[in-house]
Write a structure and sequence with these properties.
It is built from no helices and 38 strands. With about 500 residues, it is an all-beta fold. Strands 15, 16, 17, 19, 20, 21, 22, 23 and 24 form a 9-stranded mixed β-sheet that branches. Strands 11-10-8-7-18 form a 5-stranded antiparallel β-sheet, with no helix packed on it. It has a 5-stranded mixed β-sheet with strand order 31-38-37-33-35, with no helix packed on it.
Length: about 500
């Protein structure tokens, strides 16, 4: 077996590389002495795994992880190799040990360590000083070490800003040993997760809430830099709470010796435009019409004869009134925004009244008097500018998936191999996309979602995230299922990614 294991640099013994692999022999390399020496032999244990019962096995690091703890000890998760217990050299069994610079000591194992081979194990140091463990499937546990770091290994802060704005970028901070004493996380030849870079965290004094800020532009990636001044830049996230706080640099689970004071300021919120329209009718002009024509006609006839005829004129007066009224109501429109803008427009109504009265004299001379009354009311209009409120446009969610099928190929049906495949989701829209995923179909039990960087919501374009699925064959033949990816608000959602794999005899 020619599998290498982790070669972990630890600050113990003034700098030592603990080199492991697929054999029972572990070696040590002294940084200060530039020399090799034999390390502790690989541990042995009597176990039952595969087709073997109560068999003494040697636990080696043939593709296995390691993590350097804050106190310098090296945590490893080796497993046995035995082709006589089921065909595959790797047995589904792992144990955990700590190397303290001299010896290997067995420690508590994760819940399912005795069901997975060593190459499925993964270790990652967290800023809390705990180690996150996964088994390349849908399971996570935390290992909490008992030791504490040497004071001389801690980062120190020499210069830091006294105040920063929430959402600001490229804030500079400098000091010593920002990259830690080691790369920290190791594996063999298949997986690397080095964390030799500084983390910046801001802790709010009032709430006690902790916020990790994105760091970049590190002045060095070297480790164990001693008293040399190094620096990095950090961006303050929009989620960071405002007010009096402290700032800390963390390297490989070891926090800086001091946490200077810092104030996070918040910008004034942007005013929200809220249009309000009010319609108010103006007074209506009411015309008054009065037609009172009075016509009196008197005629006396005096004949030259003795006969005295009398002629009486009867007057018939028929007044005719024509009224034409035009009234235009006034509409006042007010639009209120933030800040408030009020626009008032007054229209000009005109009311015209025309009356005609006609009197007719019957039986004699006809008199046709005409009375015409015209009334005009005029209001002067002075228009003022109108403020137009622009409504906030709505955003429609739209995403796309990089593949419509995940082919897991062939896997042994003894559970000793768990391949994974991934689909990347890209947000094409300017708004956040609420995300979720599930496995359905014919054989959903053969598959599991083991990775999810979407975390229920994908940020605006061009943000991407990934769902990773694993396949475990528990028998012979083909196994099919569907990874259902849902983007809430996307009219093409959900997206169906076909999962297919073949179980074969080991």
């Amino acid at each position: 077996m020619f599998e290498i294991g982790p070669a972990a640099l630890t600050p113990l013994n003034s700098g030592t590389v603990f080199a492991t692999g697929a054999t029972a022999h572990n070696d040590l390399y002294s940084i200060s002495g530039s020399s090799w020496s034999s390390g502790p032999a690989a541990p042995t244990d009597t176990i039952t795994a595969g087709t073997c019962t109560n068999t003494l096995e040697t636990f080696v690091n043939a593709d296995a992880p390691a993590a350097v703890l804050p106190d310098g000890n090296v945590l490893i998760a080796p497993g046995p190799l035995d082709s006589g217990c089921g065909g595959s050299p790797w047995l589904n069994y792992s144990e955990f040990y700590e190397f303290d610079g001299t010896n290997l000591t067995k420690v508590n194992a994760s819940t399912y360590a005795d069901t997975v081979p060593s190459y499925s194990n993964r270790l990652m140091m967290l800023p809390s000083g705990q180690v996150m463990y996964t088994n390349n499937y849908d399971y996570i546990e935390l290992y909490t070490p008992s030791g504490s770091p040497n004071a001389s290994w801690k980062p120190t802060i020499t210069t830091s800003p006294g105040s920063v704005a929430r959402g600001s970028s490229n804030n500079s901070i400098s000091g010593t040993q920002f990259n830690g004493m080691t790369q920290n996380n190791y594996y063999g030849d298949d997986y690397q997760t080095a964390t030799n870079y500084p983390l910046v965290r801001i802790t709010n004094n009032s709430s006690g809430h902790v916020f990790y800020e994105r760091t970049h532009n590190h002045s060095t990636m070297g480790v164990a830099t001693g008293g040399t001044t190094v620096s990095t830049e950090f961006d303050v996230s929009a989620a960071t709470e405002c007010g009096a706080s402290t700032i800390t640099v963390v390297a490989n689970g070891i926090a800086s010796s001091t946490s200077p004071a810092i104030t996070v300021s918040c910008p004034t919120p942007t005013a929200t435009v809220t249009p309000t329209v009010t319609r108010t009718p103006s007074p209506t002009a009411t015309p008054t019409r009065t037609a009172t024509p009075t016509v009196t006609a008197t005629k006396t006839a005096t004949p030259t004869t003795t006969a005295t005829p009398s002629a009486t004129a009867t007057k018939t007066a028929t007044p005719t009134t024509t009224a034409t009224k035009t009234a235009t109501p006034t509409v006042t429109v007010s639009a209120t925004v933030t800040p408030t803008a009020t626009a008032t427009r007054t229209a000009t109504p005109t009311a015209t009244l025309t009356q005609t009265a006609t009197a007719t004299h019957t039986g004699g001379p006809t008199h046709t008097p005409t009375a015409t009354a015209t009334r005009t009311s005029t209001f002067t209009a002075t228009p003022t500018p109108t403020a137009t409120a622009t409504p906030t446009p709505t955003c429609t969610v739209s995403v796309e998936a990089t593949t419509s099928i995940m082919d897991f190929a062939v896997a042994p049906d003894d559970g000793s191999f768990v391949p994974t495949r991934s689909v990347t989701i890209t947000n094409l829209s300017a708004c956040a996309a609420p995300m979720s995923a599930d496995i359905e179909g014919i054989d959903p039990g053969e598959y599991g979602i083991v990775g999810d960087t979407c975390h229920s919501s994908l940020g605006p374009s061009p943000a991407t995230c990934k769902y990773t699925a694993a396949f475990t064959a528990d028998g012979l033949g083909e196994f099919d299922a569907d990874l259902i990816v849902t983007a809430t608000g996307d009219q093409n959602s959900p997206y169906d990614v076909t999962l297919t794999g073949q179980g074969s005899a080991p």
